[in-house]
Specification:
By secondary structure, the chain is α/β, with parallel strands linked by helices. It is built from 13 helices and five strands.
Length: 368
Amino acid sequence: MSQHYSQFRAMLAISRASLRAIFRSPSAVIFSLGFPLIFILVFGFIGGGGTSVSIALKNPSDSNNYVIRALQASGVVKIKDEKDSLTMKKELIKGRIAAIVSLDSSQSPAGFTQYKIRTQTSSASADQFPILKMALAQTIMMIEDTKIPDQYKIISLQELPEVPGREYMMIDFILPGMLGFSLLSAAVFGVAFVFFNLRQTLVLKRFYATPINRKNIVFGEGLSRALFQMLTSVVIILAGYFFFHFTLVNGLATLLEMLFLSFLGLVVFMGFGFIISSVAKNESSIPPFANIFTLPQFLLGGTFFSTQAFPKWLQGFCEILPLKQLNDAMRNVAFEGASLMDCSKQIGILVLWGIVIYAVAIKTFKWE
């Protein structure tokens, strides 16, 4: 006698098989679980910090003073560790700090200690200084309303003459990031799809059957992509310069230095494309593999926002990302007028990435 067919058990079997297939699919796991978690972590770190400004203390020992400690406790002011007065002045002119702050004390006729807070700002940090003034006013009010020894209660605020600075506009931050975004996307996705299709359609194998050298086949394909991307870089930089007043401190020389950095970054990123084109089993698996490498860099490489908003431990991880180094180098060259020699740290890390990546690419690259 035949057993009764259970629709419910059949439904459970289908569900179980489908669930196994989902967990065995890298793309399903990454897009359904990985990416949302990354976005939540990144934007959670950014959103939790609130509005803040950075300052430098003219006398670093002032950080032990009750007034400065109260200012830090407000959560609005961060003190940068700059011990060199020349470095402080450069940071102020570039708008990287809101002000240089000094705390002087003197004895009043009544015998109390008079604290005078002196602040010096620049035109480049004009948008940050009102936030600092508000924090200073609230800190002074809080101290004077607190039952503490009288010698801390008499505090005054003095603003020193403003120094000239070069305005750091949003385009000066965004354009290098978008240029790096373009280079990374074109190199990884473009190379991965092109070489996978060439291998899948046996075009690479047919190329190899001709007298042309294997290396020249790869170089030829890579050169065409590099030329196209360099043209794209020129268009992006010049459009930013002429239409949005992007800063090119030294004009043509700065443009050429940015193009050199763009080419270096492109060559390094193309290595990842070669690896992905070899490890991908089919065309649909290329985007998940590519996004494993590109997405963390888009979010953590200083592309859309400064990594200063992240916790210290995460900033350390950001520093090893090749896109972060490329973005930093291009911003230093474009706005600060740094030379390529001044960017030796960033260039060195990019070159190191390139050596490692191409060593792996040579081992994994497939012709069939």
